[in-house]
Amino acid sequence: MVIRISKQMITGKSFEYALLIQFEEKLRNKTNVKVIANSAFIIAKDCFEKVTKIEKSEYLISASFAVNFLMDIEPRLSNDIGKEDILQLEILSDDHGKNGDVRDVLAIRLLQKWEIGVSAKNNHKAVKHSRLSADIDFGDKWLNRKVSKEYFDSVTPIFKNLKEIRQKSNATAKWSELEDHHSSVYVPILQAFVTELKRLHEENPKEISRNLVAYLTGNQDFYKVIKSKNTVEIHAYNINGTLNLSFKDIEPKYKTPQVLLPTEITDISFKENSQTTVIVKFNNDWALSFRIHNASSRVEPSLKFDVNLLKSPKSLYKNTLNIVHRQKES
Asked: pLDDT at position 4, please?
C-alpha cells in the first residue's frame, strides 16, 4: 500500500518530531527518559529528514522555546520520585484523532499515573477536520447520540448523486464542472446538519454542547503549540484540571486555570453572505465555525469540515513566545 505524503503532512510531522526530540534532549540529564520508537515516531522522523536544513533549524528552535516554557509550567516533566519513575515520550498515531484525542506528543509517567499531551500546529490554528457522508453518523461519532432517519433521508440522495457522477466519469469529474455545487450540494447538506444539531441539542442541551466542543477541540487536557515564523503560541486546554500540577513542594512558575465547557448552544446559523459556513455559538464564551468544502478537486461522495475556534473563554491560558532565528550566511 502506497501512502501519499503531502507537504502539509511533512511539515506537521516534522514539528511533532522536533518537539519530541527537544523534550528528550532537555530532560535526559534531569530524569530517566525513554522514547517510544513506534510507527508514528518512525513516520515523523522520516518526514523530518525530508525537510531542508533551514527548516530543521526552525522546527528545532521553535520546539526548544516551547519545551522550555512547558518545563516551567509542568514540574513533573523534570522531577521524578526515583530511578524507576521513567518519563516516556511518545508520538501518537493519527487514529487517536478519530475519537476526539487531538494530542500528537505525549509525556507519560506511569509510576505517578500522570501524563501531558501536546497538539502540534505548524502555521495554522484549525481545531479539527471532520467529514460528512452518507455513511457517517456525525452525532454518534462526535456527540455520543445517533442522528435521526430524517437527517440521512436529507443527505443520502445528494451524496448518492455525487457517487454516481464519480463512477460514470471513472473518478475524473471535477467539482468545477458541476453547475453551482454550492447551492445544490453545500447548502442543503449544511441545512440538514444545522437542523439535526438543533434537534439533538433540544433533547439534551448540556450533553450535546459539552460533547461537541470537547470532541472538536480535544477531549483530553492538552497544550496546543502553534508554530509561526517568528512566534510560538502555547494554549492550555485545562478542561479536566489535569494540567499544571505541582510536584511535591515544587509549584509551576505560571498558573493555567481550569476552563469551563459550555452547557448550551445559544445560536446555530449560516455565516452572513456565506453558502459554505455555519457558526455555532455557545454560552461560557465559546464559538465555532464550520466551513464545508471538497477536500479534492475531483468529485467525491463526501465533504470535509474545516472547523475553527472563533471564541474561547478568557480562562483558556494563552502565551506567545517571540523567536529570533539566526541563520548563518552561506
From this structure: 54
